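Readers of this paper often ask what the protein records in our data store actually look like. Such a record has a labelled line for the sequence and another for the backbone structure tokens. The tokens are whole numbers drawn from a learned vocabulary of local backbone shapes. We quote a single record here, exactly as it is kept in our systems:
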Amino acid sequence: MSEPRKASTDQWTRLDVDPLLEWDEELLDLDPSPPDSPTRATRVLLIGQSHDLELVSIARKLIDRGAFVRVLLADRIASQPSLTWPAPVEHLRFDVGLCRSHRGDQPVHYHYDRTLRHHPEWAAVPPLERSYAGEQLTTLFWALVGRIKVDRWVNDPWAVRAAENKLVQLDAAAACGLRTPRTLVTSSAEQVRAWAAQSTTQVVSKSLDSPVVTVSDASARFLYTASADAAPAEDLPYPHLFQERIVADAELRITVVGRRMFAARIRRGNGDDVDWRQRTPGPSEFEATSLPDGLRTSLDLLMQRLGLSFGGVDILCSGEDHHFLEVNPSGAFLWLERSLDIRISDTVVQLLLAGG
């Protein structure tokens, strides 16, 4: 596996190359039944992206533990698998499943290592047809997910799709006792100006769902959280999410796996960017930390309310106060596992095989 190339602080490295992860085709074939054995192997379905390092780590560990593993890659749904309707589906039954991503309709995938990967099968799709092609992939994906029978999900795909909505997350977080930033969603410039005038701090803007990558021949950029102190002069073409900026001492990335929580802390200063990812901090800048009981309880309630067993939660710390930002149901964690020597992937495997 080759090392990813690093990008500058405001631009991503474009990788229009073959997948970095060469999946074993046997793992991608949903049809065969597991071989007969005296003790029946646990049947595990993993759903994610071709370039998901966390997914391949989990798959390898599950196989080492004797599980029967099959992998459905959302970005390869056009060729994996071939299906007919109607058809017998007894073979599409699994004991447990984990969904890390369902976004097969995005031709470009972005990653924490600051690279962009463009899956080869999208190279044949003309730009004007990509929207239509994405709709076809999405339709096929959800039809297949509806056909597959899974006895126990660790992040049900339908729950992941709903939970990725940041507005749903904010409502759920507030209901679970978490502090949330003062928020406005609007396309009206007048409303933004009036709302910002009542703010005691700077204002930031975000996307309403997962961040967007814009790609041209010259550049590829990630839509970070950005300062929005200059209110728009005219109405916006679509709704934006605005929040008061929380002046933070530190930020927490909390990886939740079932009832376990792995917390990492990065210090922040008043002059730091509103989004720490813009300066691409090294993993060495993070340190393991503990969580107060009240925060743990609220996060446990939040995950239950969203129907998630796994996720990466971002929290801003301001003095003794903790402010919820978002939870990413497909959050990367290998970078923390390697730098802080914490066993997140082993805990995910244990959750899949034994529950709890």
Summary: The chain is about 25% helix and 25% strand. The chain has a mean pLDDT of 82. The CA atoms of residues 84 and 144 lie 11 Å apart.
